[in-house]
Design brief:
This protein is 26% helix and 26% strand. It is an alpha+beta fold. Strands 1, 2, 4 and 5 form a four-stranded antiparallel beta sheet that branches. Strands 3-12-11 form a three-stranded antiparallel beta sheet, with no helix packed on it. Bound molecules: 2-amino-4-trifluoromethylsulfanyl-butyric acid (MF3) and cobalt (II) ion (CO) (2 copies).
């Protein structure tokens, strides 16, 4: 069942989503060589609480921290720890806030210091892949149009799309229907309707698409050890097309 949101609900979601985006903007100057992912977690945690919200990941299905931090070959759901970031690393910080009973979900990949050229191209391709997915949204079109647009942008450039994780409806629940695949055929999936709110969050690998889960039972890493990037927005479908709830106006967090 897909929960279509009323205009009133969307206005609350807009606040939750704005806060999540502001977390990414706030944390940017701290993402430097030498910082630990645990320290980044703690700064985000305090910021979210001080704005009257709760970090959705904390205790979600037993997740032990307030944000996900996924470094280099980690695809997603990395657990913040005492790992120190080093020059040339990349790290995805995935922020989800729970505010006035609604979740807002956004993530970006940051450069730690200066990236190698190959890493930079991966990250920029992923950033653009998310935008291509958003641009494929048509009222009355299908969710599969989004995944198709992402796959056809990414694969010819020599990268692979992760299959095991997808975008998702979001609202009073962290994860709702529909699933938004980041690959597939146009016309697949469900009809895109006014009032839907869902995320698009492509994970793109420098090598092959396969993954394994670390013994911590959360962290997904690439099977071949290649670097992986991810960007995520929460998007509201209106009569006039997509309304990106996690994009700040004026300033940009990515
Ligand atoms: N924020 C992630 C997503 O984009 C989900 C994280 S679940 C957690 O859907 F438990 F790992 F936090
Ligand atoms: Co998400
Ligand atoms: Co997320």
């Amino acid at each position: 069942m897909i929960n279509l949101k009323t205009d009133e609900e969307v206005e609350i979601m807009r606040e939750s989503c704005r806060l999540a985006a502001e977390v990414l903007l706030m944390i940017d100057p701290y993402v430097k060589p030498g910082v630990t992912t645990g320290k980044l977690n703690d700064i985000c945690h305090d910021f979210i609480l001080s704005h009257g919200a709760i970090p959705s990941p904390l205790n979600y299905r037993g997740f032990p921290k307030s944000i996900c931090s996924s470094v280099n070959d980690e695809i997603c759901h990395g657990i913040p720890s005492d790992r120190k970031l080093r020059n040339g690393d990349i790290v995805n910080l995935d922020i989800t806030t729970y505010f006035k009973e609604f979740h807002g979900d956004t993530s970006r990949t940051f450069y730690v210091g200066s990236p190698r050229a190959k890493t930079g191209k991966l990250v920029e391709t992923c950033r653009e892949a998310l935008q291509r997915g958003i641009d494929a949204i048509r009222l009355g079109g299908k969710t599969g149009d989004i995944g198709h647009a992402i796959q056809k942008f990414v694969e010819p450039r020599g990268y692979s799309v992760v299959r095991e994780f997808c975008g998702h409806g979001i609202g009073k629940n962290f994860h709702e229907e529909p699933q938004i695949l980041h690959f597939g055929n146009p016309g697949d999936g469900v009809k895109i309707q006014k009032g839907m709110v869902f995320t698009i969050e492509p994970m793109i690998n420098l090598g092959g698409p396969d993954l394994r889960i670390l013994p911590d039972q959360w962290t997904a890493v690439t099977q071949d050890g290649s670097f992986s990037a991810q960007f995520e927005h929460t998007i509201h479908i209106t009569d006039n097309g997509p309304d990106i709830l996690t994009r700040l106006n004026g300033q940009t967090q990515f």
